[in-house]
Amino acid sequence: MDLAQADWVLISPEAPHRKVYSLDLPLLRRPADYQVLERQLGLDERSLYRLTLNRWATHLQAPEKGAHVVSSASPEQTIGRPLLSRSAVRRIGISLRDIKLCPACLEEEPCYDRLFWRLRLVILCPPHSLLLIDRCPLCHEPIPGLRPVSEKCPYCQRGDYRQIPHALIPSTSLLYQGQLLLLNLLTSEGTTNAKCPSIFAGSPILSVEPWQYFALSERFENLMWLRSSKNPVVQSLKKLAWTDDHVSSESPLIRESAMHMILSHYLLASWPENILTLIDRVAKLTEGQQVGGRMLENVWQTDQVVQHIWSSSSSGNTPFALLLQMFEAFFIWGTFSGFPTSGGERQGHEYLIALLPPAWSESCHSS
Ligand SMILES: [Zn+2]
Ligand SMILES: [Zn+2]
């Protein structure tokens, strides 16, 4: 797609002249902006809406937010369709200015960008089995969503986004299968005829709503924030599921997302074998450790988690509640390295609360 003329469609030619800011385009919400673009592009409001990230508002936000128009503006200043909130954009990691690209999609005629490539966790193009790129191969500047020539870096004018070494990601890998699951939940675009990934057969993750998948993903991110040499959960997970040769990207952000995808989807695959293997590993790793004079076993609740997994069908727990509970348990175990080793006056649970990130209590209790 040639975007050389992209800017002029943003300015209304008729009085009153109105400019639609390019950064507002992915989250377009004001009726006046829609009217400018409807006239300029000859599209109706619904078609324009589907070109924005708002189309996934109900997929990325819990129903009480996604079902309603979320805006600080008065009702007549927004369109009557679900809108993605700024806080969801921040939490999910959606880039409004920059985008990721598939080098092979750029080679196609006509070449194209995908709206969902703006999501932090989307890092693979399944049809081409390639990792996306997020920077110029020459100057390493990010890739602006709006740029004059699709394949050329507008910063150095020399970098060609297609000329990046391609390493194929095997379709049987956790990374590939996890990305397929994510894209299936988000949209059927780009994954036409894709069946449910087989490595997740029997896993409760196949029975959750899209917004629940993203809420779980946020929980897992909290666990990754605790990453340290002493976080027993992440350390054990890395030993079980991660090898560096999985991901050949030069981008730290893409490697980070790849690790998130691989480690979190390891837990959800080969159900419930992988999760039991992890519990076993963590239990061995922390065996005999003392916390504030109390044995860890007192706060572990390992048995409860295992019991929940086996009896989930009869306990009345929804698949989402079960997975959320598990992810929360892993988070708490991950904080064990934060306990004082001796002489602590505070009780264990106080340390746990003090270690919780602020986002922790926000949206997980809406099941
Ligand atoms: Zn592609
Ligand atoms: Zn460049």
What does the model show?
The chain folds into three domains: 6-85, no CATH class; 95-168, no CATH class; 174-365, no CATH class. It is built from 15 helices and four strands. Helix 7 (174-186) crosses helix 10 (252-268). It is mostly helical. Mean pLDDT is 79; it is low at 1-5, 66-70, 189-193 and 338-367. The two termini are 42 Å apart. 40% of the residues lie in helices and 2% in strands. A hairpin with a 4-residue loop joins strand 1 (124-125) and strand 2. It has a two-stranded antiparallel ribbon. Strands 3-4 form a two-stranded antiparallel ribbon. Residues 136, 138-139, 141, 153, 155-156, 159 line the site of one zinc ion.
Low-confidence stretches: 1-5, 66-70, 189-193, 338-367
Number of strands: 4
The helix tally amounts to 15
Largest sheet descriptor: 2 strands, antiparallel
Name the hetero compounds present: zinc ion
How do the strands of the widest beta sheet line up side by side? Answer: 1-2
Nearest-angstrom radius of gyration?
Answer: 23 Å
Mean pLDDT: 79
Q: What sequence of helices (H) and strands (E) makes up the elements?
A: HHHHHHEEHHHHHEEHHHH
| Beta-strand content estimate | under 5%
Task: Give the count of structural domains.
Answer: 3
In terms of structural class, how would the helical and strand content be classed?
Answer: mainly alpha
Shape estimate: globular
Instruction: Give the % helix.
Output: 40-55%
Report, as a whole number of angstroms, the end-to-end distance.
42 Å
